[in-house]
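Suppose you are handed a protein chain with no further information: no name, no annotation, nothing but its sequence. What can you learn? This example shows the usual starting point.
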Amino acid sequence: MDKEGFDMLFNERVAGRLARLGFVSKGKTLYFETKHFTIALVRLGGRMSASGAISHILCFRHSFLRDRTEQIPSKFPTEVFDYPYKFKPLEDADKELVYRPQNLNYDYERFHWESADERSVCQKLDRIAAHIENRFLPWAKTLTSATARLEITQFGENAWCERLWIADYAARSEAE
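A reasonable first move is to predict its three-dimensional structure. Written in structure tokens, the prediction is:
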């Protein structure tokens, strides 16, 4: 399969399906934004890219959280480190959706499509879209700030960004 063929399938099977749910494309990234949270399926480039493959990560953040500059973003955050929750779209599809600290480095998924046949590429792309639609988006809609704060406190590494997020969650709960 060539890059053009893969991009066409990705746009049809993932971007098109998620667009019907409200996801928007920005470059190679797909994101869903409400006044409460943002989900991003980030396509990674640079040293994380490979010929004949895509590298990506699925991210979640509540909208009131500060980013690395200690500001609340006024537009869609493009930097993976601004998201507390980071998942591999295929490999984590059946795992518990819970906070796992990934503050200095993060695990991403590489999907090799070049040597795969169209049928298997379509199956994997359909699994990614189905996971986001049927599991990840419903989870994101129900993840409360109290639960997120508890998970980051319980499972975190006491990193500066985690302390920042915990403070943001605490301030949010006091305001509610």
